[in-house]
Amino acid sequence: MTRHTTVLVVGAGPCGLAMAAQLRRLDVDVTVVDAQGRPHTGSRAILLWPPVREVLDELGLAEDAARAAVRPAALHYHLGSGGSVRVPLAASDIPLVLPQERTGQLLAQALADRGTTVEWGTRVSRITPTADSVRATLTREADGTQEEIEADWLIGADGLHSSVREALGVEFSGARFPATFLLAEGRITGTTDPAGPGAAGTGGPGAAGTGGLRAAHTRGPGAADAGNLSTQEIHYFLARRGVALLAPLPSGEFRLSGAVPAGTAATAEHAQALLDERGPGGLRFTEVRSVALFSSEERVAHTLRSGRCFLVGDAAHVHSPIGGQGLNLGIPDTRNLAWKLAGVVHGRLRPSVLDSYDPERRAVIAQTLEATGRMARQAVAGPVAGRVRNLTWKLLQVTGVLTRFYAPMLAGWRSHYPDVLFGAPLPDPKRRTQRSRPRPGTRDPRWTPRPTDALAGRFQLFTRGDPAGPLAARAAHLAADLPDLIAHIPSDGGQEYFVLLRPDGYVAASGGADDLSRAGRRLASLVPALPSGTPAGEGRSR
pLDDT digit string (tens) for 377-386? Predict the structure, then answer.
């Protein structure tokens, strides 16, 4: 007997869990399977920037995540030529430092609280798309038994080596990044030395010779953990021999990572050598809990959608881990898709709205790949290029560019979508938008959706000015006409204008009363046709 589900999510990493939990929040039936026999472990991706934090907030996980995480106040770049550049993080830009294992646990609990648990040890061994559904064969790894399942929609969230992507025949083009990275986590003690190896860039084990990392000698215990190195900052050491990241973890441990020469072994000795060679000097690992080598790739799926099947997260794209953008790119994939798919499932949106998923996310993928690729090249820069990099960083700090543009870019506020949601761009795309009004397709920390479940899946129409004025009245009428699609949120005072936010936080439109009329017509184009003679918005229910 064939089982039926509305949406089959393949893969129960953070992206698959986030996809499923958001769909359940929007009252969509979901089945989640994962080939692994138990939940994913390890810290892996640790930076949760605002786009991920917003999803956690909407799922009711914000407080639990914040309690379990480190909240860094700044990014601190220690230049190999001496001096440093500190980039303070505004409240709207602060990430959470939280091991991926804990993020997955929180998302799994949110999913379980909504009545769905992951079917672990269940592999999708065959996928057969049809015009109206997707049929799949589920194989239980424990005993080899098989079950047929039919889903209206299928989401591939099964990572770099996605079986869904392979079954659909979707090309995954790109290349491997030409560097190997060492990643170690453990406890660090000592007192930093301003004139140590990382600061001068000339001392420490391995400073001379061919560039290989050698085992470090043991230093004295020094002061308390991390000495005088701030545990409320993420540190980047831009030494002459390469870049190293040192980030505080919630457990009181630190993560150390950096590109290493070929032949480097994944040992505690080589982790210490990396810390000595590129760090501030005076620090040592008292315990190395884990150490590993990894490489990275830059690849993007040829298409993110094939009929009723979609790809999200690492199944859709992978890139350099530098900058901590992995989940910052993958989980917003799910946020973009969840409200659209739920609207189609419940008959509130035309199926054509799903056509916007690929071009919108592909644009942000390209923006992210460009940024992470640039950061990765800086991380493996040679001595001459490294000196140019350090001088550039100092200049960017003096001019304020790092605070105004770099930090918001990392935080996800500078990503933007092409104007494709409504099927065609605005008729006058060159028209300037007033500075106080965010442009369509952008994010703006001044304007974020309210995370309450009562507003889930709806556009949020914010109006400013006289609450009894013509703009507010027109907005109230539009929300009453399309109650399943729009929630009107008025506020008193100031210049009269509106901002229309999509359910995923991107700006759909902004402007004055005339602009609102046009935005209303565009919103109505997303709504399925009603029986002849029925006004738009009537006869619908949430």
Answer: 666 666 677 6
Paired tokens of 17: 């869990």
Dist CA 95 CA 65 (whole Å): 11
The shares of helix, strand and coil residues in the chain, as percent rounded to the nearest 5, are: 30, 30, 40
Residue carrying the six token digits 């025949």: 169
Q: Report whether 167 contacts 127 (CB < 8 A).
A: yes
Instruction: Return the biggest CA–CA distance within the chain.
Output: 83
Distance CA 124, CA 489 (A): 44
Report the C-alpha gap between 94 and 58 in whole angstroms: 18
* Amino acid in position 45: A
Angle between helices 50-58 and 14-25 (to 10 degrees): 40
pLDDT tens-digit map of 118-175? 999 999 999 999 999 999 999 999 999 999 999 999 999 999 999 999 999 999 999 8
pLDDT given at position 43: 83
Residue 247 C-alpha from the chain's centroid: 18
Distances (CA, A) of 279 to 71, 171, 192, 257: 22, 40, 9, 11
- CA contacts within 13 A on the Cβ side of 123: 15
Phi, psi of 179 (to 5 degrees): -160, 150
Condensed to tens digits (0 to 9), the pLDDT of residues 453-472 reads: 999 999 999 999 998 899 99
DSSP element (H, E) containing 126: strand 122-129
Cβ neighbours of residue 134 under 8 Å, at least 6 residues apart? 8, 127, 128, 150, 151, 152, 153, 154, 307, 308, 309
Residue, of 469 and 333, whose pLDDT is higher: 333
**What residues contact residue 467 under an 8 Å CB cut-off, 6+ apart?**
490, 491, 492
In DSSP terms, 85 is beta-bridged to: 77
User: Any residues with CB less than 8 A from the CB of 364 and at least 6 apart, and which?
Assistant: 329, 332, 415, 416, 417
Burial 521-537 (b: 16+ CB within 10 A, else e): ebbeebbeeeeeeeebb
Q: Which residues lie below 8 Å from residue 238, measured CB to CB, with a gap of 6+?
A: 77, 78, 79, 80, 386, 389, 390, 393
| Pair 175, 263: CB distance under 8 Å | no
